[in-house]
Amino acid sequence: MSILAWVLGSAAVLLLLAVFLWRAGERRRLAGKAYNETKIPAPAEELAEEIAGDLLTLSVPKPKSKPQIPEIPRYYGVDRLVLMVRDPNWLFAYWEITAARQEEFNRQYGPEAWRQSRPVLRVYDVTGVVDFSGSNANKYMDFHISNYDDNWHVEVAQPNSTFCIDLGRVLPDGRFVALLRSNIVHTPSLDVSNLVDEEWMWIEGIYRTITRLHPGSSPTTVEEATRRKGLVPLGVSSTEFGAERNE
């Protein structure tokens, strides 16, 4: 009986110890679970996440829509012939002939007139002509072009002259029919202009007075003093300015 009592007592003690340990572990587990649920993230972790998000946004730029640039039309549907001066020896002309103008030409000269005729640029020298009418030019010269041309560089080799151009067609019988007439232009001269801008001149008497007021001064010093007085424009210099003159 003593042995059986001792075994039963030991078993009861072990059972109580096991229950105690189990309850202690369950309390620790519940306490840890509650702590994790109420845990506040560290400020450093939040800041790192925000910085990482900003860097990710910056590294992937948003596509920008390209502005729509309107295209310049090649034709405007207007009959016109424009003449410009390129230099003293060359002119430049560009033009447009509408389908309506072609149909009008065919109605007037026959249904096959446009196809059977040839396009021509007729360049008139109207230098000195007060009122050009198409038949009172000093002279003219023809340039044969194609039906596909809409601009042309014209060599006139006449500086300081006035020109006008007709765009027309030559019929099979040799007649020239003008379709469009350009504006009148004037080519510049090849020589240096003999016009003197009076704004850049100064009075000889003032020049002599200024030079006498600075005896012994160098030309550069005199010129600088004169410029300060507003008598000589800036940017203009003369090798004789301030030099001594023998009268």
Tell me what you see in this structure.
With 247 residues, the protein is α+β, with helices and mostly antiparallel strands. Among the domains are: 107 residues, Immunoglobulin-like; 52 residues, no CATH class. The relative contact order is 0.10. The C terminus is likely disordered. Helix content is 35%, strand content 21%. Strands 3, 4, 6, 7 and 8 form a five-stranded antiparallel β-sheet that branches. It has a three-stranded antiparallel β-sheet with strand order 1-2-5, with no helix packed on it. A hairpin with a 5-residue loop joins strand 6 and strand 7. The longest helix has 36 residues.
Radius of gyration: 50 Å
Look at the structure and name the CATH superfamily of the domain at 80-186. Answer: Immunoglobulins
List segments where confidence is low: pLDDT < 50 over at least 5 consecutive residues: 214-220, 231-247
Into which percent range does the helicity of residues fall?
A: 25-40%
The residue-averaged pLDDT reads: 76
CATH topology of the domain at 80-186: Immunoglobulin-like
Structural class: alpha+beta
Annotation, overall tally of beta strands:
8
Give the CATH class of the domain at 80-186. Mainly Beta
Distance between the termini: 162 Å
SSE string: HHEEHHEEEEEEHH
